[in-house]
Amino acid sequence: MTAPSDRALVPFVSVAQMMSLIGRIGLKPMLRGLADEIEADFRRWEMFDKTPRVASHSDIGVIELMPTSDGESYGFKYVNGHPGNTHQGLQTVTAFGLLADVATGYPILLSEMTLLTALRTAATSALAAKYLAPRDARCMAIIGNGAQAEFQAMAFQTLCGITEIRLYDIDPAATRKCAENLRNQGLSLVLCATAEEAVQGAQIITTCTADKQYATILTDNMVGAGVHLNAVGGDCPGKTELHRDILLRSSIFVEYPPQTRIEGEIQALEADHPVTELWQVVAGRAEGRRDPAGITLFDSVGFAIEDFSALRYVLNQVRAGAECDLLDMLADPDDPRDLFGMLLRAGAV
Amino acid sequence: MTAPSDRALVPFVSVAQMMSLIGRIGLKPMLRGLADEIEADFRRWEMFDKTPRVASHSDIGVIELMPTSDGESYGFKYVNGHPGNTHQGLQTVTAFGLLADVATGYPILLSEMTLLTALRTAATSALAAKYLAPRDARCMAIIGNGAQAEFQAMAFQTLCGITEIRLYDIDPAATRKCAENLRNQGLSLVLCATAEEAVQGAQIITTCTADKQYATILTDNMVGAGVHLNAVGGDCPGKTELHRDILLRSSIFVEYPPQTRIEGEIQALEADHPVTELWQVVAGRAEGRRDPAGITLFDSVGFAIEDFSALRYVLNQVRAGAECDLLDMLADPDDPRDLFGMLLRAGAV
């Protein structure tokens, strides 16, 4: 049997290799690098093929495919969301992704994306806040202290200058885990016993809860003037985190309206309720925060272009020498029409 | 850094391992096994989540995602179609696929599918012919002698008792390649100089051409009474192989109408032109061939359930000991909420 040609081998970045990459680059520079890639792609948003993700729902979770293309590269992510998984010791969200060459259709990168999604979600939130949060924001509340919480804290520290984090979770063990993980990162940490306590003095409130059954994390009276809301956890039909009255008082910014109207906080509103697309703010075509006393809401559900940006960041690292495996994933006979002959010569027929 | 847990490791069947598997099982038994799996899933068609594939078109090709689920397992295939690839020594079609557990969203198999798609496409064609072709069919014409041709010949020999194959391609080198590959397989082979010559005496006509520019492979006068047409190559918008007049004389069988109306031969007909779903014939709910003198047409475009069946076949082989690699693809911290802690403990933060 002859060895597969270079064309047939697809670079694969494993979980261990992604951890090495984060360690080598440093989490903060990597969050900054990812935010830069996402920002650059938001600026050229109109060049992308866009479609709401393709979701397969079951009673206990969802499996989604999130494709996009800029005409040169094609990318997609596989991602699940199973809030009950933690009870079995499994991740709520796992993911992997792929980039391919549009000109040939050949894959050029396969990568773990459980870690990468955590980073890109936090980078996107912080990018949005750069345009939407009050300029002098230094204190952020994080409600929901699961797998995403520390990444949010680090991204807002790195990109927005947040110095104080106020933590709350219905499970105090999650809050302790989060505080322990963040203790040497130069952040002032306040562990709170209630969500009401957590939002005291916070100019930014991040909600990143996972469970469908706690559908109203913030009520109207908890959100005062001049606050930026970063709603990360409401991301599928029937799952929201904010009371509807808060939405009615907010300037709402979204990634891709056709998807957010199905999955985001705004599923609680009329289908024609005005929203602003975040890319337009990034591209200078729409205003972000207008009024220091206003409430801004980034109704984040995660969009395919953010994953595309993150995968391209990883591909650039691989091309610059980052460690990866090479997967024998594509059959590649010498004569492309001779797939059967390849089997014959391998002794398989 | 601790080793990933079993949960994090996804079995991966490479191209070399797929060739070994085909060699160990034997191509004919494997075609039969795949056809059995596909037939079993066609019988329970209504249990599946079905959606037309998600296509990303460019000027020179298409990249598609084909998801489906039976409520227990979820599967999808990535596949491209780039007719111009052969000019660069690349495959027109490459593919890989994945199965996941619906209950957790965790992937359970990643597999090459360039070879597997070639096998499942041929197995599906032969399965359809079992229900649609004349009972005494022994002679098949194959027009288009590219990568799919030999697999069609072997599947029809194995599943339908075809003994004579008449080959034609606009490129005589392709026909010679095909005949050379099939020469020790117990088939009588006739190399033809024209499509008209190839269809002489054939009870089954298989068209499997790849290039968009030769849009009418068969004209009306070439198709006589009692013939079964197996149209494999017309499978994307703007790409068909049969003259419209043939369609008007045929009983048309399709996989999944919402997809076939976009991609198949029937894109040339009115949107309400009557067609029969193949699964209904397999399940005994609709008639297949009614009249020995009639023309039947399997307007095949390939559907996600066929890939799902093929992936399950491979998963069963892996579970029975077939060779595979284990990919460290899913981040899996001890405490599922502690993704950040996994990075910390790995020294990555």
From TrEMBL, chains A, B:
Domain of life according to the entry: Bacteria
Pfam families reported for this sequence: OCD_Mu_crystall (PF02423)
NCBIfam families the UniProt entry points to: PRK07589.1
PANTHER family: KETIMINE REDUCTASE MU-CRYSTALLIN
Matching InterPro entries: NAD(P)-bd_dom_sf (IPR036291), ODC_Mu_crystall (IPR003462), ODC_N (IPR023401)
Classification via SUPFAM superfamilies: NAD(P)-binding Rossmann-fold domains
Source organism: Falsigemmobacter intermedius
Name this polypeptide is given: Ornithine cyclodeaminase
Coiled coil: none
